[in-house]
Each structure stands twice: as C-alpha cells, then as structure tokens.
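Support request from a user on the community tier.

User writes: "When I paste my structure tokens into the form, the page sometimes reloads and wipes my input. The last time it worked, I copied everything first. Here is what I submitted, just in case something in the input itself triggers the reload:"
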C-alpha cells in the first residue's frame, strides 16, 4: 500500500509499505477513502521528534471502509468508519 512516511525534518514521502495484517482479535483493516492532515502532522514535518524513526507512517485523520476484521471486533465488513 502507499503511505506518507517521515524521514526527517521537512522530509516526508509517499512510500510503498507492507499491507496491514490482523494482529489482535479486535483489529480491523480499513480501506482509506479520504484523509486530512492535522496540526500534529505539521509539527512532525517541521521538527525532529524524539522516538520518530525514518519510515514511520504519518496520519491519523481518515475515513474509510472496513475490509477485514479480527474475531473479537465489533465492526462489520463494508461498514464506513471515521
């Protein structure tokens, strides 16, 4: 899949990253249909943040459709989520 990744101050890139996998029973995989950038993403762009590693995926403001769920998830395939 494609994702916005952090590589350092003023260095973010669209990279190909591994597809997500269900790791825990309550996990869900979402096909992102819309996204936005928020203030915390801008802070990451403009500074070197302790703990950030090159290749870390940015973003947490998105909408999409559930495509896969773990056995303990209350979400349903096809459900739209924010």
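"...and here is what came back when it finally went through:"
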């Amino acid at each position: 899949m494609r994702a916005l990744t952090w590589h350092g101050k003023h260095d973010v890139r669209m990279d190909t990253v591994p597809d997500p996998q269900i790791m825990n029973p309550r996990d869900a995989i979402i096909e992102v249909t819309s996204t936005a950038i928020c203030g915390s993403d801008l802070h990451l762009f403009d500074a070197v943040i302790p703990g950030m590693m090159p290749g870390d995926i940015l973003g947490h403001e998105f909408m999409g459709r559930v495509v896969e769920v773990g056995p303990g998830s209350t979400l349903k395939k096809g459900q739209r989520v924010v």
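Agent notes: The reload is a front-end session timeout and is unrelated to the input. DSSP finds one helix and six strands in the chain. Residues 37 and 61 are 7 Å apart (CA to CA). Escalated to web team.
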